[in-house]
Design goal:
95 residues; mainly alpha; 87% helix; 0% strand
């Protein structure tokens, strides 16, 4: 799955878990301990899928934070900005 699809599915699961109408539907006419057990059983597959997706999402994000990108952003970009700044200062005679 792509990162955007994973994030979209995680949001869907969070919305399902936060849905009060769903809880009312499960709770209709049940004692509180029975309701809590049914709600826990109904939420278990969603929570497991959410955990799996969050792990996959973190793996994708960690892969993006590889050594190559850290080198580019921490070494090459500052050098490029310095060169552009020196060039601009020389062109405008501000050195």
């Amino acid at each position: 799955m792509k990162l955007s699809q994973i994030e979209k599915r995680i949001l869907e699961i969070k919305n399902i878990l936060a849905d009060k109408d769903r809880e009312k539907k499960i709770a209709s006419g049940l004692a509180m301990p029975v309701f809590e057990g049914r709600l826990k059983n109904a939420n278990r597959p969603l929570l497991e899928e959410k955990d799996r997706l969050e792990t996959e999402r973190q793996f994708i994000l960690d892969r993006r934070d590889s050594l190559l990108w850290r080198v580019v952003w921490n070494i090459l970009v500052p050098i490029l900005v310095s060169i552009c700044t020196v060039y601009a200062l020389n062109q405008f005679g501000l050195n």
